[in-house]
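Changelog excerpt

This revision adds worked examples to the README so contributors can see how folded entries look when concatenated. The first example is reproduced verbatim below.
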Amino acid sequence: MLQLQKIRENKDAIIDALKKRNIDADVMLNGVLHLDEKRRSLQTELDSTLAESNSISKEIGIFFKNGKAAEANELKAKTTALKEASKKLGDDLNTTTEELQNLLYQIPNIPHESVPGGSTDEDNEEVFREGTIPKLIEGALPHWELAKKHDIIDFELGVKITGAGFPVYKGKGARLQRALISYFLDKNTEAGYTEIQVPHLVNEASGYGTGQLPDKEGQMYHIQADDLYLIPTAEVPVTNLFRDEIVKADDFPIKYTGYTPCFRREAGSYGAHVRGLNRLHQFDKVELVRVEHPNNSYAALDGMVEHLKNILRELKLPFRILRLCGGDLGFTAALTYDFEVFSTAQDRWLEISSVSNFETYQANRLKLRFKDENGKTQLAHTLNGSSLALPRVLAGILENYQTVDGIKIPEVLVSYCGFDSI
């Protein structure tokens, strides 16, 4: 979330920046400043009341010690009134602080200066494209028909067991899925990321820490009996490793990668564009998370982009990179690049990764800090990216690598799969 001091000092600039998101933040920011002023006033009054009460309590002790019980009892009545006043002030302070925090949670991150204006994904800016779109055989099929033809993914069986959006991978389909996970993890660890395995459920504090709550509460699966949430991405548990931590500046860059299943309700998603692997409620993903010094976070973001380019080059999939416009930018991100693979059989681009810099937005929620060279405590910058989300990568491989004899396996995956075709 945005820092209070930054809002106090740069209110007009923040209002202007958030217009890129098509948000008029004037009312919200004025509300924040009003509640902040009220909170500070209540805190000052409470401190004064408590100080006066403590001072009088000392006087009462002196009076009793000197045998002046009447004077002591007279002051005791005053301390009783002060205690009642301090309790009310404390309650008002807690209520105001909670209202302020809830309002701050509703304000999205400030877009980076390079973020283009725009309202929808049609306004996103293409910044890179590479690869040749293959010419498919006559009668080429979309991946959901290929999966059925070769009996490698069973969508109907998933519906039987759970519901729509929970496919069952079978035989070579399951092995290809596992191969992709291993390949992505190997590429990431070779690039200096530490592999980590994390829980697939998180508590409410973790959801608030990375910004999924309250913004995306309706998109998360909530286990009410235990008040836990199934993770929508490994970003949540991995980034929360650093909640309430002061890291060492010498530890930068901090780089983690992890594989997890991901769970998203995707409420309201329907239609042809979500068929097959295009939109799932449960899917596998390998994630990158970085904690960086503020001076290096955008260089780190560029490095993550180049890393993903190299993976897609090895897979020999045609891809492009988009810089998201303000209207399509995620709630917590300052700058996001989307990677898309071209699905030849569907004749459209499929998003396979988002790589984002959150600057201090998540760190402020997490209280993730470091000490600079002057010993001053500062907020770190956090970044994350999919490396990669499997469903649409798998869809792209199945569709773009289909031949009259079946489906070829990308050369780089053959050693992981143990076979070269389906």
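The second example, added in the same revision:
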Amino acid sequence: MKDKLNFKLLNLLIIIAIICLLYLIRGLWIGIVTNIFKILAPFLLAFALAYVIYPLVKKLIDAGSPKWLAILAVCIIGIGSIMIIIILTVPLLYEQILLFLSNISVLLSDLSTKYEINFGGLEASLSEFSTNIIANLGSSISNGAISVVNASFGVFSTAVIVIAAAIYFLIDMDKIRESVKNYFELRNQRTANYFDKLDNELTKYIGGMGLNILLQGIEYTIAFLLIGHPNWLILGILSGISAIIPWFGGFIVAVISLLVSSVISTKLFFLTCLICIICPILDGNVIGPKVYGKTNSLHPLLVIFAVSAGGMIAGFWGIVLSLPIAIAIRTTYNFYQKDISKKVKKMRKKSA
């Protein structure tokens, strides 16, 4: 018993010593790790992108399409869709920001006149901002032209690297997956089964998320268009994107749509309220369960906890990755639940 206790204590002291050493020399290794991560980041992103796209490519291949044609079709559709969205939304978003600021300014003016509320310089600031936004934007671009060009070149070169690497990852994805599977099967069949289960769960979630984004974007776009909302397109796109951030994303889009409609007309405001009530109910009870199925269903409290914890730990990317991580943790627990129960029972028997 003493030997076991001393052995555990020795291991604990070694771990503490390693942590203290790493803390003392953090100025050395943090810089090295940061630079390594900057180099690897585009390739990690490319692999993640290829992993996300792979199920669609596999479906096309299973349907009889040649591998090169399936990859080419998916790339063309993906890049083309992104370009179309940018071309459609950027000018519209710019115009609707001006319209939104103008409507807010009118609302403040009406409230100030009717109820004698003093908003200080807020109204004047909004009016001035909406009037001079074009001139200010043009001046900013002209003054910082070199910075804009440099930043654009950096983003463009990174995007090219990510896309090119993702294509090569897609080409070799079958070999990569087979190599990983064979490696774990040689080591431990149960571990191989675990990673196979985890891969299926994450693949199902990613496919469901992509389909949910598309369906939700179309749903809200049509709904806002039917009620005559002036920002129907941008709100529809934002609603689709907000599916990445469950609960909170939809709430933000609802607030934006209600604010815009409130400064246009009472009728539009009430119609927008109906959209913000009916569509989430439809998403939560019909579309969501059909898309994700029972396997990826998470309790609402777990979703809220995962999203909030991810946001506090890693900001936006923490929020985006919170649900996949939660699904991975739940899958791990469910897979090894029997093993955990057996170990707990053994520990209780020994202690008794």
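Reviewer comment on example two: Residues 216 and 283 are 8 Å apart (CA to CA). The longest helix spans residues 67-115.
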